[in-house]
Amino acid sequence: MSLAITTTTTPDGAIVVAASGEVDVSCASELRDAVDAALDAEASRVDVDLADVPYIDSTGIGVLVGAAHRAIDLGIGFGVRNPQRNVKRVLDLLGITLELGADATQG
Fold it and tell me: Would you state the pLDDT for residue 106?
């Protein structure tokens, strides 16, 4: 399953990076590039929507953790939204759910 990424800006100036497909070593750099671009745009907040991501490997997790740390350094809000049950479980097992601001609205 290939990865598709869309980026939208909300009326309040936040940027939502929505991924669709599996995030693994073969495509994690695409997600990194999209999130980095959103952070570089100096948005009020950057949210990564994972509603359509059924699987994420350690490389993808690393992208999210790195983005969360970069957002803190830049003073920009950051969060992971709508993780599917399997993805949320991995975030919980790794103990990074709160660090990523990951909500539990899916699964």
Answer: 43
Residue 44 has which token pair? 């009020």
Quick one: pLDDT at residue 102? 75
CATH number at residue 47: 3.30.750.24
3-state secondary structure of 50: strand
pLDDT attached to residue 55: 96
Phi and psi (nearest 5°) for 8? -130, 150
- Supply angle C-alpha 102, 104, 107, rounded to 5: 130
101 burial via Cβ count (<10 Å: 0-12, 13-18, 19+): middle
Residue 55, domain member (yes or no): yes
Number of domains in the chain: 1
Structure tokens at 101: 């601001």
Low-confidence ranges of the chain (pLDDT < 50): 104-107
Q: Which domain holds residue 89?
A: 4-94
Q: Supply the pLDDT for residue 1.
A: 60
